[in-house]
Amino acid sequence: MNFGAALDVAVGLIFVYLLVSLFVTALNEYISSFLNKRSEYLLSRVQSLLGGDGSEKKTGEWSPEMCSVWNHPLISALKSHQTAEDHCTKRGALLKNAPSYIPGKTFAVALTETLKPSETAHLSFQQLKTAVAGIENNDALKNALLPMLDEAEGKVEKFQTNVATWFDGAMDRTSGAYKRWIHRLTFWAGFAVAIAFNVNSLQLIDNLWRDPVARAGLVAQASQSAKDAETAQGLQAQLSTPAPSGSDASSDASGADGAECACDKDQDAADIGQKLALPIGWTHEAICDLWTDPRAKPTPGQLRQRPQDWSKSCKALKRDGWGVTVKVFLSLLGLAITGLAVSLGSPFWFGTLQSVTNIRATGIKPDRADGTAQK
Hints:
With 375 residues, this protein is mainly α. The protein is 68% helix and 2% strand. The protein is built from 19 helices and three strands. It has a three-stranded antiparallel sheet with strand order 1-3-2. Helix 1 runs antiparallel to helix 11 (201-210), helix 1 (3-35) packs across helix 12 (212-228) and helix 1 runs antiparallel to helix 15. The radius of gyration is 29 Å and the shape is elongated.
C-alpha cells in the first residue's frame, strides 16, 4: 500500500469536509437568525426563572415579575426596539425584538429594581428582604431568591452578585441546549448539502485514490490554506477576500445583512470544490453511475446477445437489480458519512488539516541562511 498516496487522500478528504463545514456553518447562522432561535432559548429560560411554576408555558401568561424585568430599561436597551411587551405580544414579533444575550449583572440589577417599592429612592437590604418575602403567586422565584438573601451578608450588592451567578448558570445550561440544537441542525444541514451537491465520501475516496492529478491539486490547495490561515474563521475570510482593485465599491457593501454576507462568503469556499476535478455535483456521469457500471467492458458478443443490458445514453453496461441496490445503499452511506463529518464543525477539521499536513510535510522547514524561506 502506498502510504504517501493514502495520506494525500486523507488530506484531500479533510479539506473537502472543511469546505462543506464552512458552507454549512454559514447556512446554520442564517437558519438560526431567521428562526430567532437564540432569542427563543433566552426568552424561555427567563420565563422559567421568573414565570413561576411552569404553567405559563401552557397558558402563555407572564408573571408580574417577568413583565417588569422584561420591560425594564436595562433589558429594553438590549432589544432591537424599546417597546413594551407582554404575553399578548405576537410570538414572532417578540422573538424578533428579543436580545440574543443578557449579561448576568444587568439581569440582577433589573430584578432588584423591580422588587424595589415605587416610593423608595434607595433600596435597603431590609426592604429588599421584605419585598422578596412579599412575592405572591410565584413560589418558585421566591424560593430561589431567599437562599441568595441568606448568603448576601446583609448587602444588596452581594445579593445582586448571587443573582447574577444564578442567572449565568441558567444561561450556561441554555447555551448547552442551544448547542445541542445547532449540532442536530448541522448534521441534517450537512446531509442536505451533501445530497444537493453529491458530496459522497466513499466516491471521493475512490476518485482521489485513482486520480493522482486531482489528488495533487486538492492537496496543494489544502496545504496552502492550512499554511496561510491560523483558524477556520481565518480561512473563511481568506477564501472570501475579493481581488484587490482600485474601486471603493467594496466599502459600500459593509452595511449588508450579516447572514447574507456569511452565505456569500462560504459560497466562495464551495466554489473551490467545484473548480477542482472531483466527483462533486449531480453530473450526467454521476447519475449514470447509479444504475450503470462505467468500468464494465462488455465484449461485442455479449452486446449482441443481450443488447438491452447496454445503456445508450450513458454508454455503459447496466447494473442488475442487486447491483443498483448496493450502489444506492453505498451512495446514501457516503452521503451520511459526509453529514456526520460536517457535524463535527469547521474548527475541528481545520485543526485536523493542520495536523495532517504537518505530518505530510515532516515538520516546518527552517529558513535559509539569508533569511529566505526554503521551497
